[in-house]
Each structure stands twice: as C-alpha cells, then as structure tokens.
C-alpha cells in the first residue's frame, strides 16, 4: 500500500509573519517536527498544480533533523513531477528550508545546512532566484558537469553515490546540527544504479545520521521509503485540502483551505475545465434564438398520441401497391421464382 | 538565445524543416555551428540550405560549420569492420553498449571556437536526429547521458545553444512503448528549456496547413507555470511560415 500523499509539508509562509503555530504532523505514526503552517490541522496538502504522474520521478529531498525534544525526527521526502512541470518547487523547498531555522527562536540553536547533490542542474541555475544569504548557506556538490568522468574533471560522479562518499560530503560541515540533503535528481541516479543499491545507500545515509526508516518495496520502493511524497500535478482537487502556491521569490503561501465543495473559486475552475466548447476553431455554442428554435422543433419519431392514431388509421388510398403484370412478367404460381429447370 | 537547449520533437510527421531553419538561422547569425547529421547526407542539407540562402560548403570551408556526416562515417565502420580508421565519433556503431562518449568527444573538440581565422559567435550544436541511435542499439540512458554532457558543455559552460530533433515512433500497444523513443523524449524534455512539438493537424490532412507546433517554455520563465503556445505552420519552398490557429491565409 502506497503511503498517503504528503501529510507533511515543512513550508513556511513568509508573507504571514503572524501567528504561526507549531505544527506537528503525524506521518506513519511518528511525530515529525516541521515548519510552521498557518492554520492547519488538515492532514493532506497537495501542490497547487496537480499534474499526472509519469513514472520518472524527479527530486528527492532527505531531511535529517537531530533528536528534538525527545521526539524522533528525520524523514525522506520524495517530490515527484512530470514533464509538464519544471523544478521550481524544489528551489522553493530549498529556500524555505534555509529560512526556516533562522526565523523562529526555538530553533535558533541549530544551524540548518542544506547540502545539494546536483546532477540535473548547474549551480548557477539552482542558485538563481535565491537571495544571497540563502545561497551562501547552500552547499552545492557539483555532479552536473561531469557525472560519469567523461572529461576527467569530475567533482562528484554518479558512482560515488555510496554511503561513505555521501558521509564525506556531509562531514564538510561538521558544525551543523540539522542537515538537509537534497538530491537532484534521483532519476539520474536510478539510470545508472540498480534501485536496490540506491535503496540501500539512501537508507544507510539516513541511518548514519539519524533515524531508521521503515522500508518497504523501483519507484514504488523508494516511494514507500519516503515519509512523505509530494506529487506535483496540474489542476485542482477536491475537499479537505490546502492549496499553496509558489511565489516569485520562491516562498510558498498557503491559500484557502477548501473544506466544502461549494467553494466558488473551485467551481468556476472546474466548469472551465469541463467545458468542451472552449478552444475550438468553430463555434459550438447556441445563441438564444437558436436555442429556442431548437427546443421548439418537433422530432420526427417522437410520437404524440394524435400523431400515432393518425398513422395507424390509414386513409383509403394511402400506401397501397397496385400491380398490373405486364407481358414480360410470366408468373407461374407453381414456380414463383422462375428457377426450376425442367 | 544563449544557453538554450531547444528540443524539437515530432510524431507522425516530419519536423526536419525546423532543423533546416535553425541551421540557416544560426549560420546567418554568425555562430559556430557543429552539426551532427546522422540521417541525411551533406548534399541533402546543402541543397535545402541553398534555397534558404546559405551555402553550407562555403561555411564548412571557412570553418564556421563542422559537419559530421553520419552516413558516410558509418560506412567506414560497417564495411571495413574492425580495421577501420573512421572517427571515434561513430564508435557506437561498433559497440552500441559503449554509449555515445565518442560522439560527445567529437562535439566537445569541435564546438569551441577555432583558432586563427575569424572569431565566430557563441557555439551551436545541432543534432538530426537523436532517436536514430536508439534503433542502432544504443540505450536510452546512454542517449540521455550524451545530451546531458552536451548541455553541460555547450549550454552551461560555453553559453551556446543546442537544438536536437527527436522523432517518436508509432504508438505501440505493448509495454515496449516505454522503452523506446517515448522515454528518450520525456528524459530530454526534463533537460531542455524549450520544446517544439510538431504534429499533424488533429482534424486530418489539409493542403494549406501542414501541421501544428506546440511551443513550450520550461521553467526559466517568469511565471510559475510553463508557458505553452500553439501555432500552425505551412512549409514553403523557402522556409516555413507560422501563424496562430485559424489565421492561415488560406482560411481568412
């Protein structure tokens, strides 16, 4: 059974400096301290744009937090996207993770460090859009320019995705108490490694630093491993969810919570989605006069009582066939089809 | 148009007119072009570019154009076998499992500005087309690695541009459809910054409108979403003309 979708999101709304209650979500039975979401006991949050899931999933973020007030922490967050959506959500995640710990006092002891293992995008691309302080606290490990050692200039190759090497990477910031390791992207690694190896490496990484995750079952297996899965897809969804959007400055705002289907915003969007007469090169709509005329039209096989009785009682000279056999018709009653050969 | 990876894909139609367009466009703009022509001969491209106003032979002599004629190189490998002195670029024909590293080395060596002579603009890599290597035994992963490396070198490091053509096969009913060009296409779409998906018209054949192109900007735009636009096109003798849906001159 696949784990339920993202029951956690450590997202922070920076536009709302106000009351942010500490939010703990329950994921697979474990308490997971995460960021501050306003308001929000609702358990499931899905991305603003919901796209259809393609089997290539894309980004993986591992959050490793130290033991915090006795509650076990640590988790594996899997972000799954498709060809229709680009990776801005990952940058947003990085951004909020970096900002998370500096804004609230009870976390101020910890210095949150983000390590990025970048295969898919270059450092410039990833840091584009982040502000300077955040960019400085981001440790980017360049696996983009030469992941397979083709130019013999590689800083991190895909074959180095093992426990020891990742441990070495993370030891570069020994003073950090809370480390988030972001892997961009897991699809890249899966192309070159057997999923079992990845599974082992990732599990080991987390257990090296902290907690033991429950593992279950290539996509499905790692998905099971994740404590939360964020599936990114277009469209809007139904009840009981919060939707959020990613802003220009890569912060995330939680928008309205949809708790009942009568929400007006939802309705118009859904009716727009379902309207097949939009976006056509010919006109399928009816004007008012046309609609009236259509409704007034009497259908030919729609029988009213009068019409039925008129048809059943045939007039005297309606519909009778009069046949006069002429000279060529040689009708033999014993051989009506004229095919007997004597 | 710096640092862009443009992916041209087609399905049940022929998008090579876009390759010809880009080729003459970049040559006219004075960029250094490295063209991997894996499916047609040099004279084919040369003839069409002539009609578009660019001379490929001249460009090649001047050093502005580096042309890998895949068909000719492959003859060396296929006919002479092991003892061939062909370039390493088509090594994948000898041993498909080795991947496209040789081809990448060829690209890397030729895409930098040449020493001496004139200085050309930013480098451009054109590939026509990448899906043909799949039918030659190269795996999808190897093709994606190749395009990754090309992008890292050409787009990120040298701030040049890259245009690749990928052709999708007919849709298969079996699971096998996952293995082929569809997977390559999806992998490439994740890597690129702009896709041009060329298809025939959904309503069928039309003499005046040859098809439609869906242009999709990914990620780097200002908005949150990828921007998509749909245009229709008609291929003329001297290029193609694009217009918004329903505004073809034949219709209006």
TrEMBL record, chain A:
Gene Ontology MF terms in the entry: tRNA binding
Protein name: Elongator complex protein 5
Family matches, as Pfam families: Elong_Iki1
UniProt record, GO biological process: tRNA wobble uridine modification
UniProt-annotated location(s): Cytoplasm; Nucleus
Location (main, coarse): cytoplasm
Pathway recorded for this protein: tRNA modification; 5-methoxycarbonylmethyl-2-thiouridine-tRNA biosynthesis
Family membership: Belongs to the ELP5 family.
Entry superkingdom: Eukaryota
Acidic residues: bias regions: 326-342
Keywords noted in UniProt: Cytoplasm, Nucleus, tRNA processing
Gene3D superfamilies, per database record: P-loop containing nucleotide triphosphate hydrolases (3.40.50.300)
Keyword Cytoplasm in annotation: yes
GO cellular component, one term: elongator holoenzyme complex
Region span, Disordered: 315-342
Automatic annotation (TrEMBL), chain B:
GO cellular component: cytoplasm; elongator holoenzyme complex; nucleus
Family matches, as Pfam families: ELP6 (PF09807)
Keyword terms: Cytoplasm, Nucleus, tRNA processing
Pathway note: tRNA modification; 5-methoxycarbonylmethyl-2-thiouridine-tRNA biosynthesis
CDD domains from the UniProt entry: Elp6
InterPro entries xrefs: ELP6, P-loop_NTPase
A biological-process GO annotation: tRNA wobble uridine modification
Keyword Ion transport in record: no
Annotated compartments: Cytoplasm; Nucleus
PANTHER family in the cross-refs: ELONGATOR COMPLEX PROTEIN 6
UniProt similarity note: Belongs to the ELP6 family.
Listed name of the protein: Elongator complex protein 6
């Amino acid at each position: 059974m696949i784990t339920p979708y993202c029951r956690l999101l450590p997202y922070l709304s920076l536009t709302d400096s106000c009351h942010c209650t500490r939010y703990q979500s329950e994921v697979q039975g474990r308490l997971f301290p995460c960021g501050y979401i306003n308001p929000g006991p609702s358990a499931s949050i899905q991305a603003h744009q919901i796209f259809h899931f393609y089997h290539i999933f894309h980004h993986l973020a591992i959050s490793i937090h130290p033991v915090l007030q006795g509650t076990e922490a640590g988790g594996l967050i899997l972000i799954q996207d498709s060809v229709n959506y680009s990776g801005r959500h990952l940058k947003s995640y990085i951004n909020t993770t970096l900002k998370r710990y500096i804004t609230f006092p009870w976390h101020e002891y910890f210095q949150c460090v983000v390590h990025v293992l970048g295969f898919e995008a270059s450092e410039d691309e990833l840091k584009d859009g982040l502000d300077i302080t955040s960019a400085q606290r981001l440790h980017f490990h360049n696996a983009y320019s030469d992941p397979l050692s083709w130019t013999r200039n590689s800083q991190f190759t895909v074959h180095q995705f093992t426990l020891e090497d990742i441990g070495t990477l993370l030891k570069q910031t020994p003073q950090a108490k809370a480390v988030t390791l972001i892997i961009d992207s897991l699809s890249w690694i899966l192309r070159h490694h057997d999923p079992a190896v990845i599974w082992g490496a990732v599990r080991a990484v987390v257990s090296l630093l902290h907690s033991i995750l429950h593992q279950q079952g290539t996509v499905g297996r790692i998905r099971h491993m994740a404590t939360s899965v964020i599936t990114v897809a277009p469209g809007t969804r139904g009840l009981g969810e919060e939707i959020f959007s990613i802003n220009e400055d890569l912060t995330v705002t939680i928008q309205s919570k949809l708790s009942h289907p009568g929400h007006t915003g939802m309705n118009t969007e859904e009716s727009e989605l379902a309207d097949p007469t939009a976006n056509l090169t010919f006109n399928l709509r009816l004007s008012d006069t046309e609609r009236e005329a259509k409704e007034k039209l009497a259908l030919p096989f729609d029988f009213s009582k009068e019409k039925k009785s008129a048809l059943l009682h045939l007039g005297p000279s309606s519909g009778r066939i009069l046949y006069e056999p002429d000279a060529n018709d040689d009708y033999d009653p014993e051989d009506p089809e004229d095919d007997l050969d004597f | 148009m710096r640092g862009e990876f443009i992916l041209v894909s087609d399905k049940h139609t022929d998008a090579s007119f876009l390759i010809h367009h880009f080729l003459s466009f970049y040559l006219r703009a004075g960029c250094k072009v490295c063209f991997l022509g894996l499916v047609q001969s040099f004279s084919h491209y040369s003839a069409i570019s002539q009609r578009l106003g660019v001379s490929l032979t001249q460009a090649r002599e001047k050093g502005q154009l580096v042309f890998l004629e895949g068909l000719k190189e492959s003859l060396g490998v296929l006919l002479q076998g092991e003892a061939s002195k062909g370039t390493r670029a088509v090594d994948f024909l000898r041993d498909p499992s080795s991947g496209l590293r040789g081809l990448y080395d060829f690209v890397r060596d030729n895409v930098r500005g040449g020493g001496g002579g004139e200085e050309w603009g930013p480098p451009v890599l054109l590939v026509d087309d990448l899906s043909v290597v799949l039918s030659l035994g190269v795996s999808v992963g190897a093709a994606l690695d190749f395009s990754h490396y090309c992008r890292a070198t050409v787009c990120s490091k040298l701030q040049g541009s890259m245009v690749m053509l990928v052709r999708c096969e007919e849709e298969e009913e079996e699971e096998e459809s996952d293995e082929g060009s569809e997977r390559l296409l999806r992998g490439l779409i994740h890597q690129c910054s702009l896709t041009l998906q060329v298809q025939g018209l959904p309503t069928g054949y039309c003499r005046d409108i040859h098809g439609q192109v869906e242009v999709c900007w990914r990620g780097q735009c200002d908005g949150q979403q990828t921007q998509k636009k749909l245009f229709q096109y008609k291929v003329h003798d001297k290029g193609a003309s694009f217009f918004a849906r329903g505004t073809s001159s034949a219709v209006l």
